[in-house]
């Protein structure tokens, strides 16, 4: 008797890969380290916000479209990416499928807790008026949503809040948010998750900003940032270590007692981007000071920083920048990049003091605002009005979308591979991105910078499921294959 659909579905579920997990990353001194092996972890990452701010709402964000996440994780595996940064997230939706997809691919996540929606961030011109319980519904909601994923590398408490437009008191409020987030994680998560700040490259106040967040307050030790990100675009075209000012940044951050990395880099004043700064960033000139960086950005938007153009729900094009970055990553000696150094992991923070601040326009006080009473209650008892995610199984599979390279050739053999437990993605791994010799059609290679990777996800998922279901009328082997694909694309 032919097996029933239920029997085949159960068999397919049994064949599905279990939820392999990466090893959580922790902070030791000025390094990120693998919590199991003790090896140094260097960020080889991309900033990931498909669709820009228009691709975000309370019901949709970059980590809610599983089809898009599967495609992008597979492409990132071939590129050599090990970390993504996501700027805008909603605490009201389930991120389990996308977070698990990136986890299975060996890719970590650094997540901003702020939102562009009303009440979702600190106003740099009015931090006192926006530091309230409404704001922390967003902050604690994001922590709840992602605290259970081992590939949650850390959270950004703020992005470029402190700049020329910010009021004098702004640093104290950002440091208070760091304190409140770390206290919340300590009380409500099952592991310590690092919390940091992402700074604008405003050179006159950059060192003061670093010193303000990395020093240790004797009466508020948890307010110290665990890491420091820098959004910097000073290396443009085929520049050099000195011409770009990277040598100055190394000097400025040489005494840092916490991990420092580029939370955005990749100047596009000269196109296409060659990414020659990659060789410098991961060289012995810089890797004792910087813990890598995140290239801005994954998808092509109106500002022309993309590595990938999303032409439609089912079609994407790898841009020249993608190939150039892949070439630079492939040259890296990861054994050297990830080697540990006890002098770095043992680095201790200095005590906060007025002498640390050199600029008269920068706040020279560490008197932090008092925690709002409702926020204090949530720190103690937990915030419950959020969708808490958890790992789900992911099956290794070929991605359903069509991919073209920058010459219009169809890309073949794009596969998503679930890595072994504790394994993170690296350049030159076993995944591959190869182009066929035949040219794609004109419509497939034209990019639309306004398209969102998350648009049309329902129809794409429905199409995959329908195709899988249709295969149930064929042979037993065909039934098992289709059912397996059906399970894979339920993610």
Automatic annotation (TrEMBL):
<dbReference type="GO" id="GO:0042124">
    <property type="term" value="F:1,3-beta-glucanosyltransferase activity"/>
</dbReference>
<keyword id="KW-1003">Cell membrane</keyword>
<dbReference type="GO" id="GO:0005886">
    <property type="term" value="C:plasma membrane"/>
</dbReference>
<dbReference type="InterPro" id="IPR017853">
    <property type="entry name" value="GH"/>
</dbReference>
<dbReference type="GO" id="GO:0098552">
    <property type="term" value="C:side of membrane"/>
</dbReference>
<keyword id="KW-0449">Lipoprotein</keyword>
<protein>
    <recommendedName>
        <fullName>1,3-beta-glucanosyltransferase</fullName>
        <ecNumber>2.4.1.-</ecNumber>
    </recommendedName>
</protein>
<dbReference type="Pfam" id="PF03198">
    <property type="entry name" value="Glyco_hydro_72"/>
</dbReference>
<comment type="function">
    <text>Splits internally a 1,3-beta-glucan molecule and transfers the newly generated reducing end (the donor) to the non-reducing end of another 1,3-beta-glucan molecule (the acceptor) forming a 1,3-beta linkage, resulting in the elongation of 1,3-beta-glucan chains in the cell wall. Involved in cell wall morphogenesis.</text>
</comment>
<keyword id="KW-0808">Transferase</keyword>
<keyword id="KW-0472">Membrane</keyword>
<dbReference type="GO" id="GO:0031505">
    <property type="term" value="P:fungal-type cell wall organization"/>
</dbReference>
<keyword id="KW-0732">Signal</keyword>
<keyword id="KW-0336">GPI-anchor</keyword>
<dbReference type="InterPro" id="IPR004886">
    <property type="entry name" value="Glucanosyltransferase"/>
</dbReference>
<feature type="region of interest" description="Disordered">
    <location>
        <begin position="422"/>
        <end position="464"/>
    </location>
</feature>
<comment type="similarity">
    <text>Belongs to the glycosyl hydrolase 72 family.</text>
</comment>
<dbReference type="GO" id="GO:0071970">
    <property type="term" value="P:fungal-type cell wall (1-&gt;3)-beta-D-glucan biosynthetic process"/>
</dbReference>
<feature type="signal peptide">
    <location>
        <begin position="1"/>
        <end position="21"/>
    </location>
</feature>
<keyword id="KW-0325">Glycoprotein</keyword>
<feature type="compositionally biased region" description="Low complexity">
    <location>
        <begin position="424"/>
        <end position="464"/>
    </location>
</feature>
């Amino acid at each position: 008797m032919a097996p029933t659909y239920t029997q085949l579905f159960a068999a397919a579920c049994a064949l599905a890969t279990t939820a392999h997990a990466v090893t959580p990353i922790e902070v030791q001194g000025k390094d990120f380290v693998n919590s199991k092996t003790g090896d140094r972890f260097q960020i080889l990452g991309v900033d990931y916000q498909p669709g820009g701010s228009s691709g975000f709402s309370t019901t949709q964000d970059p980590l809610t479209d599983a089809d898009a996440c599967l495609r992008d994780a597979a492409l990132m595996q071939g590129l050599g990416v090990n970390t993504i940064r996501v700027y805008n997230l909603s605490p009201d939706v389930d991120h389990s499928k996308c977070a698990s997809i990136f986890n299975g691919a060996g890719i970590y996540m650094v997540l901003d807790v702020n939102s562009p929606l009303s009440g979702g961030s600190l106003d740099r011109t009015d931090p006192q008026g926006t530091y309230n319980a409404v704001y922390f519904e967003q902050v604690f909601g994001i922590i709840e949503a992602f605290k259970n994923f081992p590939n949650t590398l850390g959270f950004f408490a703020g992005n470029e809040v402190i700049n020329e437009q910010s009021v004098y008191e702004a640093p104290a409020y950002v440091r208070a948010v760091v304190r409140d987030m770390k206290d919340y994680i300590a009380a409500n998560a099952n592991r310590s998750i690092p919390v940091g700040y992402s700074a604008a490259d405003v050179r006159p106040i950059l060192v003061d900003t670093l010193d303000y967040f990395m020093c240790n307050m004797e009466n508020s030790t948890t307010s110290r940032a665990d890491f420091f990100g820098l959004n910097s675009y000073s290396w443009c075209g085929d520049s050099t270590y000195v011409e770009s000012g990277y040598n100055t940044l190394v000097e400025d951050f040489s005494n840092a007692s916490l991990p420092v990395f580029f939370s955005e880099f990749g100047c596009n004043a000269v196109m296409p981007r060659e990414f020659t700064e990659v060789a410098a960033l991961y060289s012995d000139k810089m890797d004792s000071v910087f813990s890598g960086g995140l290239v801005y950005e994954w998808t092509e938007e109106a500002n022309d920083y993309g590595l990938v153009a999303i032409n439609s729900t089912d079609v994407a094009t790898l841009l020249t920048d993608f190939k150039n970055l892949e070439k630079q990553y492939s040259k890296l000696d990861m054994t050297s990049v990830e080697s540990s150094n006890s002098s770095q992991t043992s680095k201790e923070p200095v005590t906060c003091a007025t002498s640390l601040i050199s600029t008269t326009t920068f706040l020279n006080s560490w008197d932090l605002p008092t925690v709002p009473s409702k926020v204090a209650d949530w720190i103690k008892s937990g915030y419950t009005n959020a969708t808490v995610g958890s790992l789900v199984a992911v099956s290794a599979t070929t991605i359903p979308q069509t991919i073209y390279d920058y010459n219009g050739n169809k890309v073949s053999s794009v596969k998503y591979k679930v890595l072994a437990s504790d394994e993170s993605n690296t350049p030159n791994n076993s995944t591959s991105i190869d182009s066929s010799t035949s040219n794609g059609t004109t419509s497939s290679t034209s990019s639309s910078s306004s398209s969102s990777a998350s648009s049309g996800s329902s129809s794409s998922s429905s199409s995959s499921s329908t195709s899988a279901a249709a295969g149930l009328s064929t042979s037993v082997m065909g039934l098992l294959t289709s059912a397996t694909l059906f399970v894979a694309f339920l993610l």
